[in-house]
Amino acid sequence: MNVLEFQKVSFRYAGENSDIIDHLNFSVEPGAFHCLIGVSGCGKSTIFRMINGLLKPNQGEILVNGVPIGAQKQYCGYMPQKDLLFPWRTVGENLALPLEIRGGLSKRERRERVEEALRDVGLEGCADKMPAELSGGMRQRAAFARTILTGSDLLLLDEPFSALDFLTRVSMQEWLHQQWRRSGRTILFITHDVEEALFLSTSVLAVTETPIRTLREIPVPLERERSRRDLTRPELIELRESMLDALKRQVRT
């Protein structure tokens, strides 16, 4: 069974004359890591907002694990571009929010799960720090840990590293890939960075037209265990240039 499925989904923003999503069908298999790429304003974030229920399709249906999303709660975790950590709460209190919302755990149990999540992302001992005490990369790791604590196997990451400096972004990409391999979760990741998409993805989902009627799936010819040196392989360089050329053509049109 697919983790995620779009069935003839259409969406139009109020006041617009045409759909931005038009009878879109696509599916995502369990344990995949798909980067979603396309030019700015093409509708990538709209797809995410429909998946997490912030927007409702005008037509069609979205299924997670075979069940319509309208009949479910907490079926996906969502991490936006900004970490959105509340500055007046400690890092641990920020991470505990999904557990508080879900309920059913004592304060001690929540603390234990938060500390375990912080250890998993390399932030052991940071539970009592304030967000302002963390670097940009540390804040993003904390935000990822909070997303994990939703308990969802489907994670939506919307350009989470775009505001970071180059070296921190590269480090975070490597770290995230390790986290994904270890956890086995299914990840959809929006990016404008073709190299980032190739490094992270099992296959890339490319938006090639607006309105979005289909997503072009581009397999990435790398094993799940990979390094950045693999991006220098001739077939990866050729694929990167092909994808860049396709994006440039969309900008010109």
Describe this structure in words.
By secondary structure, the chain is α/β, with parallel strands linked by helices. It has 2 domains: 1-76 and 155-168 and 180-253, Rossmann fold (3-Layer(aba) Sandwich); 78-151, no CATH class. The protein has helices spanning 44-51, 91-102, 107-120, 136-148, 166-183, 194-200, 234-252, and strands spanning 4-11, 21-28, 33-37, 59-64, 67-68, 77-79, 154-158, 186-190, 203-207, 215-219. The strands form 2 sheets. It has a 6-stranded mixed β-sheet, sandwiched between helices. Strands 2-1-4-5 form a 4-stranded antiparallel β-sheet, covered by helices on one side. Helix 2 runs parallel beside helix 4 (136-148).
User: What proportion of the residues form beta strands (DSSP E)?
Assistant: 15-25%
Question: What is the number of domains?
Answer: 2
In the CATH hierarchy, what is the class of the largest domain? Alpha Beta
Which spans have pLDDT < 50 for at least 5 consecutive residues? none
Proportion of residues in helical segments: 25-40%
- Summarize the main sheet: 6 strands, mixed
